[in-house]
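Hey,
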Amino acid sequence: MALLQLAAGSGVFAAFCGFALVSSVTPGPNNTMVLASGVNFGFARTVPHLLGISLGFSLMVALVGLGLGSLFTALPWTWQVLRVAAALYLTWLAWKLATGGGVQERSVARPMGFLRAAAFQWVNPKAWVMAVGACSTYVLHGNLWVNVLLLSGIFAVINLPSVAMWAVFGSALRRWLADPRVLRVFNVAMALLLLASLWPILSARP
């Protein structure tokens, strides 16, 4: 509690909340995918995807804050492995999205589930940038465990409604994208955005 009061009093707490909100609500692989999921599957079927993102990313923040981020410095080749894995997996997801069927066909398909969405965070370029940036900027050195768990918990609370907004928006677009030709254009556009989201990890250095 003392740590939280100290952070809040110094403005660090408010600054971190702002960082978490802006980084969570702005476009990226997660938001692109839940927007497409909302269009293709509806909000209710996208809820496990949303929970997987929020809790999976919160776990990533905790592990990075507790020292996982230093792995890239100690073993630089792990960063290259991450780049390749992210590029391959996001390219595959983009292809699957671009070649998907219409709303009627999707009604019998399966959206991304909780575990898969949580695991996806480890090859999500924006998630790595957010986690490393948050931990390197806002984790105080005193009482590290409490500090890291506090940050990861706040991120989960802010991240879930931020990402859910994209799913709600996608669900609202369903009736406007009932035409299979229009939906195909939408899915191709989302696939291109997924590919564009690779830029942060392809251009960044550990």
